[in-house]
Design goal:
- With 364 residues, the protein is α/β, with parallel strands linked by helices.
- It has 2 domains: 5-261, Carbamate kinase (3-Layer(aba) Sandwich), CATH 3.40.1160; 267-358, Archaeosine Trna-guanine Transglycosylase, Chain: A, domain 4.
- Helices cover 37% and strands 20% of the residues.
- The strands form 3 sheets. Strands 3-4-2-1-5-7-8-6 form an 8-stranded mixed β-sheet, with helices on both faces. The chain has a 5-stranded mixed β-sheet with strand order 11-9-12-13-15, sandwiched between helices.
- Helix 3 (52-60) crosses helix 4 (68-90) and helix 7 (146-156) runs parallel beside helix 8 (210-222).
- Bound molecules: glutamic acid.
- Residues 11-12, 50-54, 131-132, 134, 145-146, 206-208 line the site of glutamic acid.
Length: 364
């Protein structure tokens, strides 16, 4: 395996015992595997670790169902327990705790901040341990499951692979707990073909099931990152260091620029329709100016992601310098007219080239 950077995602069931307590034997076996990957493959590892909620509930002696503030408190308590154990298990390497939420992925500036923090931690020799910021994130602002978080983390560090460790050794065509003829899928080339195998089975204490794992594989694949789903705890990960993957491998699409991968996977807040002249300018590497805009749709604000459409086709996506209200006034106008119309002009470009990804171009 020629991997230089991997993200390992550990579900709650991979880290806790039947009572929800962090299980030192499980965690230490994984820590050992991380060290093997680092020493034998010279591979940098980022861990996405669940288990805070379960550990916190166990420590506080409370059980589901809980109110939202109680869940937040459990996560706050459990997160410290989790990090204490990781710090001990991975010593002498320092560990770096990063708690992210959906806005750290969706807002470009915060995304770059998270990326810089991860890069610096890796460069300084720390092992980043990532979890969702469950003690402040409520459901509207949550990614909601660590499978999705791990796929974004893999993008953040431009990983070669995302390893999702779970309590089954891969994706099966039927639920292996119910059907003994179920077959494990070894390699997935086209994710669409396996989506129907996911079922809804999740483990007792975790959040995801196969559905979120497949979704994660899709996010990673778009950015050119392979995903493997394996079982077997720390030993399963160590096998990978020896070149054996007993699990399901999701092959990735070709690597694309990090910016393009990010832009192409964000939900758009609005739409901008452009004429053929503007499309030509974009294809020649230029920014989008107001003059080429024929119509806008939906409400959006400065910095939002917009889809750029020409002839009924999305041709690009980018971050807008102008809100919906401002753009309504300046669409179709020359850049030098903007300050007269709006009373000020912060930007010549509506979407700057640096903040745009063409959908069709080969490389950008
Ligand atoms: N962030 C949650 C926790 O640490 C886990 C979410 C998940 O496993 O998907 O408890």
């Amino acid at each position: 395996m020629n991997w230089q950077r991997v993200v390992i995602k550990l579900g709650t069931s991979s880290l806790t015992d039947d009572f929800g307590r962090i299980s030192p034997p499980k965690l230490w076996a994984i820590a050992r595997a991380v060290q093997v990957l680092q020493l034998e493959l010279n591979c940098k590892v980022v861990i996405v670790s669940s288990g805070a909620g379960a550990a916190g509930r166990e420590r506080l002696g409370i059980e589901l169902p809980l109110t939202l503030p109680e869940k937040q408190a459990a996560a706050a308590v459990g997160q410290t327990l989790l990090m204490l154990d990781w710090a001990k298990a991975l010593a002498p390497e320092p560990v770096a705790q990063l708690l992210l939420s959906a806005s750290d992925i969706k807002e470009r500036e915060r995304y770059i901040n998270a990326k810089n923090a991860l890069e610096a931690s890796l460069k300084l020799g720390a092992i980043p341990i990532v979890n969702e910021n469950d003690s402040v994130a409520t459901s509207e602002i949550k990614l909601g499951d660590n499978d999705t978080l791990s796929a974004w983390t893999a993008q953040l560090i431009n990983a070669d692979a995302l390893i999702i460790l779970t309590d089954v050794d891969g994706l099966y065509d039927h639920d292996p707990r119910e059907n003994k003829n179920a077959k494990r899928i070894e390699i997935v080339k086209n994710i669409k073909e396996v989506e129907s195998f996911a079922g809804n089975a999740g483990s007792l204490r975790g959040t995801g099931g196969m559905v979120t794992k497949i979704k994660a594989a899709k996010i990673a694949s778009e950015a050119g990152i392979e995903t493997v789903i394996i079982g077997g705890g720390g030993a399963g990960i160590e096998e990978i260091a020896r070149g054996n993957i007993t699990g399901t491998r999701f092959l990735a699409k070709p690597k694309t620029s990090a910016k393009k991968a990010w832009l192409s996977q964000q939900d758009e807040s609005g739409k901008i329709f452009i004429d053929k002249g503007a499309l030509k300018a974009l294809e020649n590497g230029k920014s989008l100016l107001a003059i080429g805009i024929t119509k806008i749709e939906k409400e959006f604000a400065f910095g939002d992601v917009l889809a750029i459409i020409c002839n009924n086709e999305v041709v690009a996506r980018g971050l807008t310098n102008y809100s919906h209200d401002a753009l309504k006034l300046i669409q179709g106008k020359q850049s030098h007219e903007i300050s007269k119309i709006l009373g000020h002009k912060d930007y010549d470009e509506v979407i700057h080239r640096d903040n745009m990804a063409l959908i069709k171009e080969k490389d950008d």
